[in-house]
């Protein structure tokens, strides 16, 4: 990252004053400040958009996980199959008891 301390900023200011002159320096400084603000705002917008997208993806994943945990259809079907099998076994046992008697 670019490290600017007071001495480096002072050197840049003196060079800018010598190159641009006192008439153009304030205008250039305002333009540079505006461009820097615009770039910073754009970067912040991109960053916020990425964070929103990541949050949305996390929310979708959480919803899918919760849906899988709450979905009991498989368990209900398995229990129904067990009950049907037990009923068939009981009916078969009752028939065999009645045939023996």
Describe this structure as you would to a colleague:
- This protein is mainly alpha-helical and 101 residues long.
- The protein contains 2 helices and no strands.
- The protein has helices at residues 6-70, 73-100.
- The longest helix has 65 residues, at 6-70.
- It is rod-shaped.
- The mean pLDDT is 87.
List the helices and strands and how they pair.
Layout: H1 6-70, H2 73-100
Defining key terms:
single chain, mainly alpha
Percent range of helical residues? over 70%
The total beta strand count reads 0
Number of domains: 2
Beta-strand residue fraction: under 5%
Q: What would the principal axes of the Cα set say about the shape? A: rod-shaped
Figure out the total of helices.
2
Summarize, please:
The protein has 101 residues and is mainly alpha-helical. The protein contains 2 helices and no strands.
